[in-house]
């Protein structure tokens, strides 16, 4: 299958949810893919994407591990392809009282995946883009990144890091044709809430956006070269605006009332 005239998109967390939807959009637009996930479902996902007439190389690896990220880099080297688009999307959440319920290991794994692997992947991809003076990177943050997140303390903090990191790197590259965009979804209909243990919370039971809609917002913002996009419903956009003017203590109280374990029954 000829690939000479097709661009290559790297998408992490691509076996389901927003990542799957992003990879599908890239495929629909004629991009070859390298798709990454820690689950074996990534092979079926790659097969799905190839139905659009592109090549999709699956990489099953744990990005929370240093060597897992390096495996992505080695795959790119073996393909001998330049990355035109990169969607750094993989992430997890953990729910509960940081001090009295959650283990240190749970929180450190979240930081390793959500933060460390994002920085590591960016360092793999961005230098090549800058040397070619072309490329686009999309980081998936969250509207949780603009406010304190009680009962999701490390998750919200990790998304705040990604938001700040993405905007800072974008500024540093302002003298190039490489652009960085931050995607900021609100609650989205994926398996995130179940995996994070949030199903007994008001947040877990709340109305959610479609991952296809969120991915479309992110893709279009990436292609426009926007610095960030608050994806999904108008409610998400209003929350971000409100976070700029409300006191931190009030923001923490508001979020905590939605994310407190057992709050769905209150």
Under CATH at level 1, the class stands as Alpha Beta
* Strands, count: 7
**Separate helix tally:** 10
Largest sheet: 7 strands, parallel
Overall radius of gyration: 18 Å
CATH T-level topology? Rossmann fold
| Structural classification | alpha/beta
Question: Could you give me the name of the CATH homologous superfamily?
Answer: NAD(P)-binding Rossmann-like Domain
Overall outline: globular
Order of helices and strands: EHEHEHEHEHEHHHEHH
How far the N terminus sits from the C terminus, by CA atoms, comes to 57 Å
Provide the spatial order of strands within the biggest beta sheet: 3-2-1-4-5-6-7
Helix content: 40-55%
Q: Could you say what the CATH architecture is? A: 3-Layer(aba) Sandwich
Number of domains: 1
Task: Explain the overall architecture.
There is one protein chain. This protein has one domain: 3-Layer(aba) Sandwich (Rossmann fold). Helix content is 48%, strand content 14%. It is built from ten helices and seven strands. Helix 3 runs parallel beside helix 4. It is globular and about 55 Å long. 48% of the residues are buried.
Task: Give the helices and strands, then pairings.
Blueprint: E1 8-12, H1 17-28, E2 32-37, H2 41-50, E3 56-60, H3 66-79, E4 85-88, H4 104-132, E5 135-140, H5 153-172, E6 178-184, H6 192-195, H7 202-205, H8 211-224, E7 228-230, H9 234-243, H10 248-259
Parallel strand pairs: 1-2, 1-4, 2-3, 4-5, 5-6, 6-7
Helix pairs in contact: 1-2, 1-8, 3-4, 4-5
């Amino acid at each position: 299958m000829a690939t000479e005239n097709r661009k290559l998109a790297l998408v992490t967390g691509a076996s389901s949810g927003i990542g799957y939807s992003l990879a599908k959009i890239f495929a629909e637009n004629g991009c070859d893919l390298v798709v990454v996930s820690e689950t074996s479902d990534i092979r079926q996902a790659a097969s799905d994407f190839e139905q659009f007439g592109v090549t999709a190389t699956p990489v099953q690896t744990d990005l929370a591990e240093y060597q897992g990220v390096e495996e992505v880099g080695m795959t790119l080297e073996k393909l001998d392809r330049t990355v035109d688009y990169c969607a750094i999307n993989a992430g997890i959440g953990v729910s509960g009282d940081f001090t009295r319920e959650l283990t240190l290991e749970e929180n450190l794994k979240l930081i390793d995946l959500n933060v460390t692997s994002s920085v590591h992947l960016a360092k793999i991809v961005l230098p090549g883009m800058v040397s070619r003076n072309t490329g686009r990177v999309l980081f998936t943050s969250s509207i949780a990144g603009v406010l304190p997140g009680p009962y999701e303390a490390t998750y919200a903090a990790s998304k705040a890091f990604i938001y700040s990191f993405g905007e800072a790197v974008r500024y540093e590259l302002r003298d190039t044709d490489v652009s960085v965009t931050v995607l900021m979804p609100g609650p989205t209909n994926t398996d995130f809430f179940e995996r994070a243990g949030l199903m007994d919370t008001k947040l877990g039971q709340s109305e959610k956006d479609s991952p296809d809609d969120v991915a479309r917002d992110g893709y279009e913002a990436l292609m426009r070269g926007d610095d960030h996009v608050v994806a999904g419903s108008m409610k998400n956009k209003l929350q971000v605006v409100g976070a700029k003017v409300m006191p931190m203590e009030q923001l923490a109280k508001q979020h905590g009332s939605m994310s407190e374990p057992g709050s769905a029954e209150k």
